[in-house]
Amino acid sequence: MDFIGAYSADHFKFLLKGFLVTLEVAFISIVLSFLIGIVIGILRYAKVPVFSKVLAVIVETIRNLPLLLIIFFTYFALPEIGIKLDKFIAAVLALVIFEAAMISEIVRSGLNSIEKGQIEAARSSGLNYVQTMRHIILPQALRRMVPPMVSQFISLLKDTSLAIVIALPELMNHAQIINGHNVNFVIPIFLLVAVMYFVVNYALSIVARRLENKIA
């Protein structure tokens, strides 16, 4: 093992460059999957005839597919039907598709956990469906959604490493390139990569706990 050579300034800069790509992919994917997941979750909860069932089939199908397969599909299969995406967009699209399905289930489960009697009481007091959702159901459900939602976001950040299969220049890709120069760098570099992932994910968990306490 060569810790001194592995932790050179050039290697640090190269890994940080890859890590910035990882964080960028994760941030965009988190925002988009969160917004889409909330909409899908609410629509499924509303039980709109036919539409909700179609969404349920789509969500359950995606949730039971490997994320790696979806990444392969967005980057290698879509060009076969005339849709060619660059590596960054393909990775983001795959993550958003997969994570939105997961988040929608968290949202739906959170909404279903609220007692039906509260809905009936709100409607009988004169609130319409939208007002009931906004003022009664969503605020309570949100408290229950925070822990699983943040866990899903942490998983998303870690899942960005799967984009190495399409050679996206993210953290793991850059780590592999450095390791390819010298086998003695493998353990030091992977230890450093592990620390970088841990720091960000641990920070997310701390934010989640504070947010959960704040809205409790």
TrEMBL record:
InterPro entries: AA_ABC_transptr_permease_3TM, ArtM/GltK/GlnP/TcyL/YhdX-like, MetI-like, MetI-like_sf. Residues 19-208 form the ABC transmembrane type-1 domain. The chain crosses the membrane at residues 20-43, 55-76, 88-107, 153-171, 183-204. It is found in: Cell membrane. It is a multi-pass membrane protein. Pfam families: BPD_transp_1 (PF00528). Keywords: Cell membrane, Membrane, Transmembrane, Transmembrane helix, Transport. PROSITE patterns: ABC_TM1. Belongs to the binding-protein-dependent transport system permease family. This is Amino acid ABC transporter permease. It comes from Effusibacillus consociatus.
